[in-house]
Write a structure and sequence with these properties.
The chain has about 90 residues and is mainly α. The chain has helices at about 1-15, 40-55, 70-85, and strands spanning about 20-25, 60-65. It has 3 helices and 2 strands.
């Protein structure tokens, strides 16, 4: 997870246009959920930690307390896309 976070941070740090990262702390997949077969909250924490320490602009990182499949996460993505599109 740390390697993925580092690659993502590097890409964002080098981006020429607007960007934002949203991270669902309730789980990254159907398997990675609190009631799922492969929950891994520690991996989620390591991912966030690496992003926080690797991004040049941490204000564009949003951590949400929901699962990737939750309607609240979809709403967060919709709002973020709107913000990014206004900046483009």
């Amino acid at each position: 997870m740390e390697l993925i976070a580092q690659i993502l941070a590097n890409n964002c740090n080098e981006a020429k246009g607007p960007w934002q990262i949203l991270v669902p702390m309730g789980g990254f997949s159907a398997f990675d959920s609190d009631g799922g077969p492969l929950p891994d909250p520690a991996a989620r924490q390591r991912f966030i930690h690496k992003l926080e320490h690797s991004l040049k602009d941490r204000s564009l990182l949003t951590v949400l307390p929901c699962h990737v499949n939750d309607p609240d996460f979809a709403a967060g993505i919709t709002a973020a896309v709107g913000r990014v599109m206004r900046l483009a």
